[in-house]
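Weekly puzzle thread! Below is a chain. First person to post its structure in token form gets bragging rights.
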Amino acid sequence: MRCSLIASLCLALALSAGCDKQGGSSSQATELRDGQPVAHGRPTPLYSPKFVIRGMAADGEHLYVSGLRFAQTKAGEPNPDDAPSGVIVKVPLLGMPEVIAEGAFVPMTTLRLIDDRLYWHERHDSPDGPGLRSLTLDGRSLDRISDLAGHSWVIRPDVVYFTRPDDEIDEGGFYELARGGNDKPKLVVRRRGVVRTLLADDSGEDLYWTTRARNDGTWAVYQWDGGKSGKERLRSDETFASLTVDGDDFLWVTWAEDDGEPLHSLYRRPIAGGDTQVLARKRGQPGFMEVFADERHVYLTTVRGGELRRLAKTGGELEVLGGSGDRNVASNRFNLFWLDDKQVYWMSK
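Winning reply:
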């Protein structure tokens, strides 16, 4: 009798475990979006700006946002007839936001945090004049680095490099400017094509730029030799959408066409040379746009806006980071930040 009861209990437990296992498997079925698996995150509202955000940067404790504040009509709508004022806000992850800069300036869409200073550039139509600016994180010390600057720059303690401004963008070369003196920007590598993007390696020592050849339309990446020329490191028949340095490798996104459809590709290759690895490809929209990486993942924004994509460096499929956004993205070691419908959100990586 006792043995029969024990056997019945064991059978019931086994059936129950089987049912639980089957139910768990069903509830964990992979969700797909645009043919890609979805990894759900938990976005949290962080900040609701009263101005138009143009750039964002983050450290371990704060998010920094730059933008334009427009005068409003009696109906509470932005008044396009009045000149906007620039604003930079320091937003703690816990606490009250603090305006650290506001006035007659027009920051462009890139805001970067380098060695405890914020950097941005202004165009020729800014009330403050064009050029590259730097501000301490408490907002007390502004440095007018240059009255000439384009949209892409590399910052070093003793020297800065920047692309040509808007009215010179279709000319060759980029500028070099020594810091802390009265030197004027010097144009370098003018014969190496139109410089679209400047970037440095993780050490900040090696300088690279992307260019599009005038004769055949191919794209290339050069490494500066410190003088009048540079060494070609990478060439592509596909249009470069973005490029970044990840350790000893290049990561880049290209746009092409395949059977009349847009084709977006993500590649990796050692800077020193070697085989090119195709990490991801996607036909149609939304296609890939910007690429950035951290210790564990490679992240992608999309052309039309939406959710971030990410790819584990250990391999696997490209996945959609559910609940995220890919506009004005900033990140620190542990978190992602983005703008969605006039609201800044953040989530853990």
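Puzzle host: Confirmed. Bonus trivia for everyone else. DSSP finds one helix and 30 strands in the chain.
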